[in-house]
Structure formats: structure tokens, C-alpha cells
Amino acid sequence: MAFKQLRRRAESEIPTSSMADIAFLLIIFFMLTAVFTSNKGIQFAYPENDPNDREVQPEEAIHIKIEGAGQFQIDKRPAYSLEEIGVYVEGKMLQSPEKPVIIESLPDVPYFVMIDVFDVMRGLEVKNIAIPSKTERERWKTFFQ
């Protein structure tokens, strides 16, 4: 009997079993040979104590509380008109032009009343106007009352 020689065909495939090892070695090689730059940041020196420096006090803000149409409080004193508020704020701004103004409005006050107060501040060219949020009002409740 004649044996036929059986040819087995080898399947063509790319050997990937060592690919993970090669990739890992390349990562280690590049990590070890790479040059890392270090950012030193901004170089500065702390100022030295100067005995001639003045003591700077924090600046108090002007607090305007709007309780209703024609009902205002400015720095815990009643004000009866927008003109009265304007005169008071203008006097304070002459002393310190950067003085902040805090405008607090009660929730049931019509919106146009707060806009009128804003218009007065705009006419006086006040630069620092703030409206406290609900959280800030709760935090500073004792101060604003």
C-alpha cells in the first residue's frame, strides 16, 4: 500500500504572545531614558516687615435694605426717598470712591423698586455693587437686621 503523504498546511498567524512583553519593555525603556523637565514656578520673595507700614482697616460697606416701595433703610437708618439715598451714598463715595454698596431687597418688594435704586447707584457711578444671595443673607442675618 502506498502511503500518500499527507501535507499539513501550517496556518498563518502572527505570534502575539510576546507582544505584551515587548510593549511593557518599551514603556520601561522610554520612562527611564526620557528627560523630565521640572517647572520651578514663579520665583518671588516675601516682603520684609516694614515698621513704617500703616495699619489698614477693612472698609465697611454701605448697606441699603429695600423693605417696600418708598421704604428703605441705609446703614440701619430709615430713608424715605431715593434722593435721600443718593445724597447719603454720594457723601460716602467722596470719602472713599471704592466703597462697596450692598443692596438687599425683601422677597415681596416689587422688582422695579430695586431697579430704581440701581439707577441711582449708576448715576453716582458706584463701582462696587453687590446683591447678597439667600445663603449670604442667612449667614449675615444678625448684621443686616
Compile the SSE list and pairings.
Elements: H1 19-33, E1 62-68, E2 71-74, E3 77-79, H2 82-95, E4 101-105, H3 111-123, E5 129-130, H4 134-139, H5 141-144
Parallel strand pairs: 1-4, 4-5
Antiparallel strand pairs: 1-2, 2-3
Main β-sheet description: 5 strands, mixed
In helices, the fraction of residues equals 25-40%
Question: What do we call the CATH topology of the domain at 63-144?
Answer: Nucleotidyltransferase, domain 5
Task: Provide a count of the helices.
Answer: 5
What proportion of the residues form beta strands (DSSP E)? 5-15%
- Oligomer, anyone? single chain
Question: In CATH, what is the class of the domain at 63-144?
Answer: Alpha Beta
N/C terminus separation:
116 Å
How many strand segments? Answer: 5
Mean pLDDT value: 79
CATH architecture of the domain at 63-144: 2-Layer Sandwich
Give the helices and strands as they follow along the chain.
Answer: HEEEHEHEHH
- Supply the helix-strand structural class: alpha/beta
- Poorly predicted segments: none
Gist of the model:
Helix content is 36%, strand content 14%. The chain is an alpha/beta fold.
Give structural notes.
The protein has 145 residues and is α/β, with parallel strands linked by helices. The protein has a domain of 82 residues: Nucleotidyltransferase, domain 5 (2-Layer Sandwich), CATH 3.30.420. Helix content is 36%, strand content 14%. A 5-stranded mixed beta sheet has the order 3-2-1-4-5, with helices on one face. It is elongated, with a radius of gyration of 37 Å.
Can you tag this structure with a few keywords?
five-stranded mixed sheet; elongated; 5 helices; 145 residues; Nucleotidyltransferase, domain 5; alpha/beta; single chain
